[in-house]
Amino acid sequence: MDTTPTVTDPVTGDDRWSGRRRFARVGRVLPVAFLQIAGTLLASRFATVAGATGTVGGPPWARHTFGSGVDPVQLGPLAISLLVAGVVVLPWRWRWPRSVLLVTLATTIGYALVVSPRGPFVAALTMALANAWLRGHRRTVVVAAAVALVVLPTADLVLGRSSVLDLSAVLLCVAWLVVTVAVSELVRVRVERGAERRRQRVEAERQRAADERVRIARELHDSVAHSMSLINLQAGVALHLGDDLPEQTRVALTNIRDSSRDALVELRTILGVLRSVDSTAVDGGPERNPVPGLERLPDLVERARAAGVDVELAVVGDPTSVAGITDRNAFRIVQESVTNVMKHAPGHRVTISVAIGPDLVDLTVDDHPAAGTASDPARTPLLAPSGNGIIGMRERATAVGGTLTAGPNAAGGWRVDARLPVTTPVPKETP
Fold first, then answer.
1. pLDDT at 416 over 70
2. Mean pLDDT of 210-215
3. What region holds the Signal transduction histidine kinase subgroup 3 dimerisation and phosphoacceptor domain (predicted)?
4. Which of 74, 213, 220, 329 could hold 274 in an S-S bridge, CB 3.0 to 4.6 Å?
5. Angle 423-427-431 (CA atoms, 0-180°, nearest 5)?
6. pTM for the whole thing?
């Protein structure tokens, strides 16, 4: 019986329990093989004397009456080959349970027909019966058990090796089959109950995570969304009433209004994700507020330019070929890098390079100090390596199986390099 679960690494997708699974399929066969082969060979060495006074000594399966004389049960090459063949097929019992059961039944019956059976020659058949029962092939098990019950106790009588049917051998065969099926059913029930408990734990953890997401979404809505709405409203009122405001002030208020409106749109999308709400339209149409990705880099550049930052963007490849979490994280890395320049070095010039290949996305964000500011101590360093921005960007890259490096460049500014896979690795599913 092989009930070892399949467990995969959530990052690499590798089977971390492959060694245990191989042991479960092959290692558990070793004691069965030893019991069947060595035990049967040892039992064949015991001679049972049978004469006019009856049979003397030995277990029920070793008692035979041949008139007068000794029945040593000599095992020839064919009998030994049948013993070994019944064990050799057991490692494949998990993939082909019925086929293995039929093969072991055939080898066991063949052995009983070749020689007068004694010893634990049914060990492999027992394992095959139990495995097929656990795998749900109960009808096949019942048929195989019926065939074994008819053939094994009567083989000596049919072939003339015994003059009478040994009722004790029949009862022993019945008891063996009943115990095998009963124990297999108990194990099946226990395994199913364990699987159900694990399923309930996973469901409870999923529910707790959903409740936590709803709580976070509620907190974000009550604090951040409320504040952003006030900022957007106040900026709009100021623009509406401030006809005599300087042009530079009006531009700043317009940027505040537009940026806060875009932030509210993104925040609404994040809240929907946290609440596990389907963001597609009811009629199956496209998303009204899609999650930002590489296609929205031009909008990001325009907002940065409106804020007074000199930004150049170069994209090589098709941004639509990148999707999912990789697309979103790539955009967030560029956004965080540009935001850092706006915060820490507003006078620097920024170049954004995006190269999209068939397998990888290479991102490079460079900021270059303006003339005469490269050695200004007030401008350096741009961002310490331990800053939260760098940590967040590195976590986003690692989350999709990519890498990120950040540090000073030769021009005296800061450089962020990220390499992300186009397709996020997905763990293998359990069968």
1. yes
2. 77
3. 212-277
4. 213
5. 135
6. 0.47
Query: What tokens does 385 get?
Result: 């390596």
Q: Which amino acid is at 314?
A: A
